[in-house]
Write a structure and sequence with these properties.
Elements: E1 25-27, H1 36-51, E2 59-62, H2 64-73, H3 80-95, E3 108-114, E4 124-128, H4 134-142, H5 145-163, H6 168-182, H7 192-210, H8 218-232, H9 236-245, E5 253-259, E6 270-277, E7 284-292, H10 296-301, E8 307-308, H11 312-315, H12 317-334, E9 338-345, E10 348-356, H13 361-373, H14 379-384, H15 388-395, E11 398-399, E12 406-410, E13 412-415, E14 418-424, H16 427-435, E15 440-444, H17 452-457, E16 460-463, H18 471-479, E17 482-485, E18 491-493, E19 498-501, E20 505-508, E21 512-516, E22 521-524, E23 529-530, H19 533-538, H20 551-566, E24 570-574, H21 578-586, E25 592-596, H22 606-614, H23 618-642, E26 647-651, H24 664-676, H25 682-694, H26 706-711, H27 715-732, E27 738-743, H28 749-770, E28 777-782, H29 785-789, H30 791-797, E29 800-803, H31 805-813, H32 817-823, H33 825-830, H34 844-861, E30 866-869, H35 877-885, E31 890-893, H36 898-912
Parallel strand pairs: 14-15, 15-16, 16-17, 24-25, 24-31, 25-26, 26-27, 27-28, 28-29, 29-30, 30-31
Antiparallel strand pairs: 1-2, 2-5, 3-4, 3-5, 6-7, 6-9, 7-8, 9-10, 11-23, 12-22, 13-17, 14-21, 18-19, 19-20, 21-22
Helix pairs in contact: 4-5, 5-7, 6-7, 13-20, 15-36, 20-36, 21-23, 22-23, 23-27, 24-25, 27-28, 28-30, 30-34, 35-36
Bound molecules: phosphoenolpyruvate (PEP) and magnesium ion.
Residues 594, 596, 654, 783, 804-807, 870-871 line the site of phosphoenolpyruvate (PEP).
Domain PEP-utilising enzyme mobile: 438-520
GO molecular function: pyruvate, phosphate dikinase activity
Cofactor: Mg(2+)
């Protein structure tokens, strides 16, 4: 559900002028599930359940607008107090008692509830309305002294901690001391008298620590609690959580004031959680936990063991049957898996919360198709119920679920995958061991830019500190490496080269560990890895229609079919060889959007390239090119054959030539050593001179792309000839080659015109010499701001544009990717300057704006201009939606990301025709 979260915006608060008409408080009877922006998720759903006639304790919600006003100005909006009073009056009338009334008090809970769930991040205060006076009234009404005093001590404790900022340990210590004095182990064994004494003690703690008495006025309790919920939006942990989850900072939280119901009034009371179907598999059934004689926080605290929800049938059949009925109502109404919190007070069932429940990636696909089969949703809606990130997760190899494993601990699932290797505790060892063929897992407390080489060498990275935006997490995700970070229960001792897990298990350097970047789990020893069934399916090795077809695969197959049916964007692959091209085709690619030819200049051909670079005379250079020509041609023949009938965009050489020469330091040392031995090698000397000559301070902005084509005679024309001859050969073999020639790094139309003219001449020569009619489209990459800004002119000479958003992001931001990602991106992410790296998700406001404008300008010049993107963003879910919106014809991405791009292109298309998605 990321539709409203723009990761690139450092959100500033929009101040809404508090006019008289603004309504800040909504009774539960007034809201509905679609008002999440205003009432938060909890408030909107409580209102929805109220309107469905379900048993929700009466109450009201204070809007996120009120919170935003408070956070902006430091004061509650002027009208809030009166509105709260009016709603409280109405609530008191409904309940037949007043807040904090001495002989029979109405008690309320004050709970936070933002648009997006932020579990445990913000404040809640229960039992508001209890005081020295009303506690006796509650005791009398409930006929249970113990319950009343226990409720009062909980209020002072919670209020003291969250509202008055008293150190929570002081209350916990006092509670422990009371248990010790009484020689009991659990607080349920404390009696009314003990709890009464504890209340006195707690009040003293408040007085000493907060410098004020615990407020006896119930309205003051409520107002202070509401304010503290507002303020809890901006605690450090809440901010950090939002950054990690990409939740905008300017949403604010709503506050729910709800009449209290009690699950701790004896064995005929209790509290529980339930799911309408299994959030792990999607199967329907009775899933949940119940705890008798308990309040909500007891379940979380794990003081006593819960029982499976099914046991409630024996404990309280009436409530159980009613709950099952309500769960069915909710599923049918929300048309989705719901999770529920409920309380039973002396045999009366109350619904405290519901929401569309979180689920695993596999369950998301299964549930979406199950709901289609049940007739609850249509195919367009099913597409909105899954996303590309979930599909990507399903494609990683996974640890074999059947294997016997010993779990060492668990951290944050920072970058998915399953990695196995020997534990190493520094980058030097990681590199050394991996060079000798060992697989290693780099284990650090946290990583820093010095660890980069070690991270590259490792199979996976494990850290004991840092969250989803820590250096390790960001860099690992960027590299597609498995990473578990922030596994705090694991003690990492890099000096002694060991890790200690809970229970004293020690992992020494060299011991094998396995890490699961999709769950955050860390295991001792080698856990066997199995390929994902979803990849087996895309590879064509598993068939969705087979009798024994995996249920998940069948669901993925159906959803992919919906996506393919509705999407407008075509999906191509970035692939440089026949093997990748064939895989891409199996994965559904509709062509190649980027064939990077530099990979064809490496290996054994490097020597020829060296000769080309070192050539002093024209004939030397021509000889080198002549040698390269047939090899290049063969590369293209294979590629066109693999992609027969589909377009293949071949990019002429892009990187600076020195990338094909030896490393400057290594070569200098070699030459110096040879000189000292007096056996200098002439070739090495010439190479060294060339390396010096071609050395650039800033190669990314140097002699590369079209610039190479313009200054190295014959280089681009050799490549064009190879493409044309290969196409002719394929045609002669009755193939259907659809080659497109792409010129990289163009900044001005003049560059393109020159290269184009030369290319056309070569193509004409090939047509002439082979007698084969060829139609080769010529186009360019848009990778420089100037190219984007002059797209109208460039389109005069280009039949297609392919946005190279990797370079375009570098040049628009002035970032050198390799340098900045490892050095300061973590800091930028932590400071919220951007929510996600602009190399991962397109920066819509900056880079995206250039793309959008260039699309318009290019099409104005040439209405049939073909438009695509081949930067990494072509496979990024959120970016795919953007490219759909700006009207590109296709996205191109690495073969493994093709299914994700297909799915997201389908989601973008069905979303924009307006489906009833959440
Ligand atoms: C790009 O710049 O987006 C691109 C695809 O080119 P490369 O990544 O090869 O520089
Ligand atoms: Mg580029």
């Amino acid at each position: 559900m990321s539709e409203n979260k723009d990761p690139h915006v450092a959100h500033t608060s929009e101040t809404t002028a508090a006019t008289e008409e603004v309504k800040f408080v909504y009774d539960f009877t007034e809201g509905n599930k679609d008002l999440k922006d205003l009432l938060g998720g909890k408030g909107a759903n409580l209102a929805e359940m109220t309107n469905l006639g379900l048993p929700v304790p009466p109450g009201f919600t204070i809007t996120t607008e009120a919170c935003k006003t408070y956070l902006d100005s430091g004061e509650e909006p002027a009208a809030l107090r009166d509105e709260v009073s009016a709603h409280l009056d109405a609530l008191e009338k409904k309940m037949g008692k007043k807040l904090g009334q001495a002989d029979d008090p109405l008690l309320v809970s004050v709970r936070s509830g933002a648009k997006f769930s932020m579990p445990g991040m913000m404040d809640t205060v229960l039992n508001i309305g209890l005081s020295d006076k009303s506690v006796t009234g509650l005791a009398k009404q409930s006929g249970d002294d113990r319950f009343a005093w226990d409720s009062y001590r909980r209020l002072i404790q919670m209020f003291g901690k969250t509202v008055l900022g008293v150190d929570g340990d002081l209350f916990e210590d006092a509670l422990e001391a009371a248990k010790k004095a009484k020689k009991v182990a659990v607080d349920t064994d404390l009696e009314a008298g003990d709890l009464k004494k504890l209340v006195t003690k707690f009040k003293k703690i408040v007085k000493t620590e907060a410098g004020r008495d615990f407020p006896q006025d119930p309205r003051e309790q409520m107002d202070l609690a509401i304010r503290s919920v507002f303020e809890s939006w901006n605690t450090d942990r809440a901010k950090l959580y939002r950054r990690q989850e990409r939740i905008p900072h300017d949403l604010g939280t709503a506050v729910n004031v709800c009449s209290m119901v009690f699950g701790n009034l004896g064995p005929d009371s209790g509290t529980g959680v339930a799911f309408t179907r299994d959030p792990a598999s999607g199967h329907q059934g009775v899933y949940g936990d119940y705890l008798q004689n308990a309040q909500g926080e007891d379940v979380v605290a794990g003081i006593r063991n819960t029982v499976p929800l099914a046991d409630l049938e024996q404990i309280d059949k009436k409530s159980y049957d009613q709950l099952m009925q309500i769960m069915e109502t909710l599923e049918t109404h929300y048309k989705d898996l719901c999770d529920i919190e409920f309380t039973i007070e002396r045999g009366q069932l109350w619904m405290l919360q519901t929401r569309v429940g979180k689920r695993t990636a596999g369950a998301a696909f299964r549930i979406a198709t199950q709901l289609v089969d049940q007739g609850l949703i249509d195919e367009a809606e099913a597409l909105q119920r899954v996303n590309g990130a979930q599909l990507a997760q399903l494609m990683f190899p996974r640890f074999d679920a059947d294997s016997k494993v010993q779990q060492l601990g668990r951290g944050i699932a920072a970058s998915p995958g399953a990695a196995v290797g020997k534990a190493v505790f520094d980058s030097y060892t990681a590199i050394k061991w991996s060079r000798s063929g060992e697989k290693v897992i780099l284990i650090r407390r946290e990583t820093n830019p010095d660890d980069l080489d070690g991270m590259i060498a490792a199979e996976g990275i494990l850290t004991s500190r840092g969250g989803k935006t820590s250096h390790a997490a960001v860099v690992a995700r960027g590299m597609g490496k498995t990473c578990v970070c922030g596994a705090e229960e694991l003690e990492v001792d890099t000096k002694r080269r060991r890790l200690t897990a809970p229970g004293g298990i020690v992992v020494e350097e060299g011991d094998v560990v396995s890490i699961d970047g999709s769950t955050g789990k860390v295991y001792l020893g080698e856990v066997p890895v199995v390929p994902s069934p979803v990849v087996e399916y895309f590879e064509g090795r598993m068939h969705a229609g087979a009798d024994d077809a995996d249920e998940l695969v069948a669901a993925v197959h159906r959803i992919m079919a919906y996506a393919d049916r509705v999407r407008r964007l075509r999906v191509r692959a970035n692939a440089d060889n026949a093997e990748d091209a064939l895989r891409a085709r199996r994965f559904g690619a509709q062509g190649i959007g980027l064939c990077r030819t530099e990979h064809m200049f490496l290996g054994e051909r490097r020597e020829m390239v060296e000769r080309l670079i070192l050539a002093d005379a024209d004939d030397e250079r021509e000889d080198a090119l002549k040698e390269l020509l047939p090899l290049q041609k063969q590369d293209f023949v294979e590629l066109f054959e693999a992609m027969d009938g589909l377009p293949v965009t071949v990019r002429l050489l892009d990187p600076p030539l020195h990338e094909f020469l030896p490393d400057i330091t290594e070569l200098s040392v070699r030459v110096a050593l040879a000189e000292s031995r007096k056996d200098s090698n002439e070739n090495d000397l010439r190479l060294l001179q060339a390396v010096h000559r071609l050395h650039e301070q800033n190669p990314m902005l140097g002699l590369r792309g079209v610039r190479l084509g313009l200054v190295i005679p014959g280089l681009f024309t050799m490549q064009v000839r190879a493409i044309a001859e290969a196409a002719a050969e394929r045609k002669n073999a009755k193939g259907d080659p659809r080659a497109e020639i792409m010129i990289p790094l163009v900044g001005t139309v003049q560059e393109l015109e020159i290269v184009r003219e030369e290319a056309e001449q070569v193509i004409a020569e090939v047509i002439e010499s082979t007698g084969v009619e060829l139609k080769l489209a010529l186009g360019t990459m848009i990778e420089l701001p100037r190219a984007a800004l002059t797209a109208d002119q460039i389109a005069e000479a280009a039949e297609f544009f392919s946005f190279g958003t990797n370079d375009l992001t570098q040049t628009v931001w002035g970032f050198s990717r390799d340098d900045v990602e490892a050095s300061f991106f973590t800091a930028y992410l932590e400071k919220g300057i951007f929510g996600v790296s602009p190399f991962e998700t397109i920066d819509k406001d900056g880079v995206g704006k250039l793309v959008k404008d260039a699309v318009k300008a290019g099409r104005a010049t040439r209405p049939d201009l073909k438009l695509g993107v081949c930067g990494e963003h072509g496979g990024d879910p959120e970016s795919v939606h953007f490219f759909h919106e700006v009207g590109l014809d296709y996205v191109s991405c690495s073969p493994f990301r093709i299914p994700v791009a297909r799915l997201e292109a389908g989601r973008a298309a069905s979303h924009s025709v307006g489906s009833d998605h959440r």
